[in-house]
C-alpha cells in the first residue's frame, strides 16, 4: 500500500464490489477514493459497462464510461455461477468490511450471496443492496434506468413550459444521487459498526433517492398545498418566483435568479418592473415578467449583463459548456479535476473528489483495472498458492488479464 493510501481516511477497509452500470460502481469508487481497498468482482469477460461505452467513447482497452467509474479498484474475474467461483467469493467476504451489489431482485439469493448467507460467514459485514425501485413490491422487477426514474420522480414537471414535453436533466441524475446515497449509507453503517461491532443490511433504491432529494419541493406541495403549475414561458422552477431561468443574450446565455424587481427593472431598462411588489407579482405575473426579461436581455452581451448585475447585487451567472467549465478560474483554484497516468489509456483527466480532508485526503492510487487484472494478487492474499490459482484458471473459474 502506498504512503498516500495509508493516510487516506478509509485505508484498511475492504470493500467487495459486485455492482454494474453506474450507480453501484460510482458509490464504490467514492469509497476507493477515500482509501478503501475496493475489489471489483467481475464475470470472466468483464462487467457490462466495459462493453457499453457512453457516447461511443471506446478508449484503447478501457472505454471512458468504465474508466470514469472504476478507479481505485482491483479487479477479480471469477465465475459466480460455478461452485468453486462462489467459494472464492466466500473466502473474500470473510475478511471484508463492506459488500455492495445491485443485482436484479432474486439474483443474489439464487447465487447464495444474499445478506442472510454472507452475514453467517461474517456477522460484522456491512451489506448494501441497491435496486431501482426497492427490494420487493409491485415495481421491484422494473428496469431501474435513470431516465425512467427521472420521469417517475415528478421533478420534470417542476420546470419548463406548460404544454411542452418535460425536459430531462443533462446528467445521469438518478444514478448519481443513488450513488451518493449509497456512499453516505456505507459510511453511517461503518460508524455504527465501529461503535457496536454489528454489521447490518443496508438497502438503497433509486426511486427513494430521487424522491427524497426533492425534500423542499415536495414539502411545498404537501404542506403548502401548492400544485406544480408550469407557465406558458419556460420558467426554470415552478416554486421559485420570476424571473428565474436562462435567457439569451447577444452572444450567449445568462442565468438570472429571483432578483428584486425594482432593482432589476432599473438595470435592464424595464420600467414596468419598478413598481411591482416582490411578494406577489413574481407569481401572478410570471409569464409577463419572463417575456419582458427575455426581450431586454437579448439586446446586450453576456459579459455586459454580468458586470451590471454584479455591480447591483443581482444574482446572475453564465451558462457554461464543458470547455468553459474546465477553464473556469474557480474550478482551477479548487483543483476540481485530477490527472493521473493509466496503463492503457495514457494520461487521464477526470473529475476529482467532492470532499476534502486536511489529514486524510482522497487520492487516485490506481486507474480503472483491466478485467481480472488483480485476480492473482487478491487470491494470493486469501492464501491460495500458485498451483491452486493456476488450476482455477485452467477450469475457467477465474480469469486474469495483464495491465
From TrEMBL:
UniProt cross-references to Pfam families, sorted A to Z: CoA_transf_3
EC identifiers of the protein: 2.8.3.19
Domain of life: Bacteria
Coiled-coil parts of chain: none
UniProt GO molecular function: transferase activity
UniProt KW keywords: Transferase
Top EC class of this enzyme: transferase
Gene3D superfamilies: Crotonobetainyl-coa:carnitine coa-transferase, domain 1, formyl-coa transferase, domain 3
Keyword Transferase found: yes
Name the record gives this protein: Acetyl-CoA:oxalate CoA-transferase
Gene name of the encoded protein: uctC_4
Amino acid at each position: 500500500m502506498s504512503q498516500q493510501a495509508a493516510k487516506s481516511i478509509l485505508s484498511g477497509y475492504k470493500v467487495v464490489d459486485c455492482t454494474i452500470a453506474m450507480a453501484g460502481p460510482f458509490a464504490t469508487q467514492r469509497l476507493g477514493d477515500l482509501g478503501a481497498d475496493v475489489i471489483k468482482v467481475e464475470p470472466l469477460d468483464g462487467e457490462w459497462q466495459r462493453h457499453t461505452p457512453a457516447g461511443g467513447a471506446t478508449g484503447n482497452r478501457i472505454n471512458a464510461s468504465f474508466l470514469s467509474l472504476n478507479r481505485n479498484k482491483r479487479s477479480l474475474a471469477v465465475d459466480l455461477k460455478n461452485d468453486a467461483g462462489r467459494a472464492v467469493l466466500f473466502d473474500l467476504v470473510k475478511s471484508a468490511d463492506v459488500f455492495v451489489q445491485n443485482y436484479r431482485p432474486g439474483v443474489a439469493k439464487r447465487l447464495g450471496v444474499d445478506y442472510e448467507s454472507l452475514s453467517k460467514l461474517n456477522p460484522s459485514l456491512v451489506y448494501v443492496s441497491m435496486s431501482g425501485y426497492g427490494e420487493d413490491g409491485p415495481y421491484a422487477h422494473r428496469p431501474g434506468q435513470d431516465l425512467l426514474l427521472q420521469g417517475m420522480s415528478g421533478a420534470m414537471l417542476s420546470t419548463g413550459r406548460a404544454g411542452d414535453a418535460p425536459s430531462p436533466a443533462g446528467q445521469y441524475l438518478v444514478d448519481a444521487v443513488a450513488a451518493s446515497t449509497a456512499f453516505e449509507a456505507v459510511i453511517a453503517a461503518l460508524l455504527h459498526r465501529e461503535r457496536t461491532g454489528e454489521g447490518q443490511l443496508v438497502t438503497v433504491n433509486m426511486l427513494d433517492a430521487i424522491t427524497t432529494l426533492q425534500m423542499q419541493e415536495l414539502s411545498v406541495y404537501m404542506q403548502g398545498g401548492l400544485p406544480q403549475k408550469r407557465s406558458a414561458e419556460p420558467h426554470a422552477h415552478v416554486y421559485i418566483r420570476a424571473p428565474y431561468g436562462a435567457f439569451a443574450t447577444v452572444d450567449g446565455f445568462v442565468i438570472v435568479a429571483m432578483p428584486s424587481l425594482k432593482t432589476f427593472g432599473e438595470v435592464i431598462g424595464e420600467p414596468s418592473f419598478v413598481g411591482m411588489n416582490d411578494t406577489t407579482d413574481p407569481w401572478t405575473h410570471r409569464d409577463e415578467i419572463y417575456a419582458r426579461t427575455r426581450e431586454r436581455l437579448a439586446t446586450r452581451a453576456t459579459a455586459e449583463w454580468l458586470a451590471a448585475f454584479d455591480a447591483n447585487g443581482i444574482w446572475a451567472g453564465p451558462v457554461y459548456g464543458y470547455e468553459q467549465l474546465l477553464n473556469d478560474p474557480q474550478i482551477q483554484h479548487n483543483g476540481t479535476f485530477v490527472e493521473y497516468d493509466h496503463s492503457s489509456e495514457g494520461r487521464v483527466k477526470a473529475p476529482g473528489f467532492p470532499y476534502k480532508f486536511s489529514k486524510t485526503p482522497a487520492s487516485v492510487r490506481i486507474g480503472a483495472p483491466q478485467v481480472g487484472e488483480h485476480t492473482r494478487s487478491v487470491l494470493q492474499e486469501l492464501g491460495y498458492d500458485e498451483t491452486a490459482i493456476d488450476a482455477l484458471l485452467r477450469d475457467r473459474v477465474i480469469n486474469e488479464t495483464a495491465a
